[in-house]
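Same chain as my last thread, 210 residues:
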Amino acid sequence: MKVKICGLTRLEDALAAIAFGADALGFIFAQDSPRSVSAEHVRQIIAALPPFVTTVGVFTEGDIPEIEAVVRENGIDMIQFHGQFEEKTVRHFSHRAIQVLKVKDAASLNSIQPLPVRAVLLDTYHEKMAGGSGLSFNWELAKKAAPLGKIILAGGLTPDNVQEAIRQGQPYAVDVSSGIEAAKGKKDLDKMKRFIVAAKETNVSGTPSE
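reply #2:
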């Protein structure tokens, strides 16, 4: 099971995530997020990371030149489109794009516009928050979303429920932010380690790995 740790703001948390076995690290560029980071700060963190770690930039707005400028400055690998973007923008970055779908119910799966992206991240719909709400949805919908592509399951995941989420949703990967925090933007290292270990010990069918 692949694991993405999102909402990182500190180098020490990023290095700990890698040491615990995380596959990807997420950095949020939305200015109104309590976990927002600047392109320069992310550049400094990435420069201190070991090789072969996937980094993901989370964007809630921006056109092609704006996003390209951020990516060029910090060297982010993947772009997570967490909001309403023009189709041409997503297509331009399709080789490194993650499309986000906010899930209310089964009908939500019909609302996503099929685009050539690397993965689709399912997050819980919230009327006022773009993400990081700590709320979950019906995880079995992740399994039904499989025709959309590689599914990343997010929303309300914690060290205590991630194995059940994997069992029900059978995703390609799981994503966590608020569920392993000591405070907004600061990770609880014990929770982070327990989350990664729990996810890695569970195979796609939700049973403990041999």
